[in-house]
Amino acid sequence: MGIRARTAIFLLAFPPLGASAQTLDYEFFKMRVQPIFLEKRPGHTRCVVCHSDRSNNAFRLENLAPGAKSWTEEQSRRNFEMASRLVVPGNADAGLLLLHPLAPEAGGSAYHSGGRQFASKNDAEWKILAEWVRGGARKPN
Fold first, then answer.
1. Residue range 84-111, pLDDT digits in tens
2. CA gap 95, 83 in Å, rounded
3. Which domain holds residue 84?
4. Alpha helices in 14-139 (DSSP H)
5. Distance (Å, rounded) from C-alpha 5 to C-alpha 3?
6. Tell me: the pLDDT tens digits for 8-27?
7. Short-list 53, 56, 43, 23, CA closest to 101
8. pTM above 0.90, yes or no
């Protein structure tokens, strides 16, 4: 596959920030989704360990300050912007944020070097991610 084809696929996989971030609920993300990235699950490391600092993958979280247990408001907004690029609002069955950590047997991606964080779509934390993408969309005023 040529570089132009790869570039086109990359651009389609990661829509412009404005398109996604405007349709997803920031408060829901901050209060329900973002804490998932800090959770230690048995047999796995926390998402933030591999997806911050020197991460060179598509999902990069802000670094936590030394001793901090969560992100600042400004950092949370940047995490929201990053995560919003990796989902398809309204469709929990698409987007890297939901598919990479999900086991392939459950419909997830065959590749995620961090292991299968979620064995199935019945995992409570996967359901929170899906709720943000499906039902966490902002309602028009």
1. 999 999 999 998 899 988 888 988 887 7
2. 10
3. 15-134
4. 17-21, 26-28, 47-50, 73-84, 96-99, 124-134
5. 5
6. 444 445 444 444 444 899 99
7. 43
8. no
Domain count, the chain: 1
pLDDT > 80? residue 81: yes
Both tokens of residue 106? Answer: 């459950």
C-alpha distance from residue 42 to each of 52, 63, 118 (Å): 20, 23, 11
Does some domain include residue 2?
A: no
- For 107-139, the pLDDT digits (tens) are 888 776 666 788 899 999 999 999 999 976 455
With contact defined as beta carbons under 8 Å apart, do 133 and 90 qualify?
yes
Cα(51)–Cα(59) distance, integer angstroms: 6
Asked whether residue 88 is domain-assigned, the answer is: yes
> Has residue 10 been placed in a domain?
no
Burial of residue 30, with CB atoms counted within 10 A of its CB: 0-12 exposed, 13-18 middle, 19 or more buried: middle
Q: Is 6 within the bounds of a domain?
A: no
Q: What is the predicted pLDDT for the residue at 1?
A: 55
- Amino acid letter at 63? N
